Amino acid sequence: MGDDFEPIEELSEVLLQMWTEDDNRATVGEDLVLNMGRRTFTRDQSQDKCSEPLMEYVSEELFERESYKRFYDLLDNYESAVGVEEVMTKHEIIEMKKFIDVVVGSRPMQIAQEYLVGKGWAPADEEEFKDWLWDVWFTLYKRGRARGRSGDSSGFEHVFVGEIRNGSVIGFHNWIQFYRLEKMGKVDYRGFIGGKRTQDTDFMITIQFSWDEDLEDTDDGAVKYVGGTLLGTSPEFEMALYTIAWVYGKENGVVNIPVTIGDLEFWLIAHVYKGKYLGTCFASRTPQR
Q1: Is residue 158 flagged as an active site residue?
Q2: Would you call 173 a catalytic residue per the annotation?
């Protein structure tokens, strides 16, 4: 990281505590094994630089854990195309509330809540905090020209599930969703961006991939030219991490948030959409220009 990188110490201490007390993450190199393949470049559309899947092995036992199971249940609740109205069924709402219950009971989110409450940015009461989290992550809003009243996007859909707009993938910053769609044959890993990472010591990668929802279509699908994702992180840790990042960015009027977790230096990128919605949030090795 360059000389101009100055992490926010207070925030970094909170994140380190969340990381240290999260006993539910997958071990990269054991529970999760990658095939990094070859390097590609940001705007290289000419060829796929990796013929093999990114996820060489993922332990299915992970998805027997409560938070992983509840998170996985949510991933098929959304329409990928921006502009297509989202409709929440009663069953889907129950799934979302069960996920929030599990997350709020976890140590990473408890630590995050304590920090946010101390700043006056979130409610201390547990049930009120659950409602507040729902508003942050699951409130529907219009990102495209969706017909109807409910909206076509949400913070959760954009960050964790991903969306497709005008031939490009937007959002989609979660390794579990990538594994799920790669296993289904809907995403194609094209290679990594930047220096090759050692998967046994790192938990962040930058990659390029395509996403094709229509398995009978002959085109290559929508492309994510630069996609950053954490690896092996538990659903509760990621939601706690991005909740803190988005609220911090919103309250301080910043997009790029420099932080550390132990020896790892990185940026949390947080965008407020239309002045009040969680537009996006993700971890990156570089600030957004």
Answers
A1: yes
A2: yes
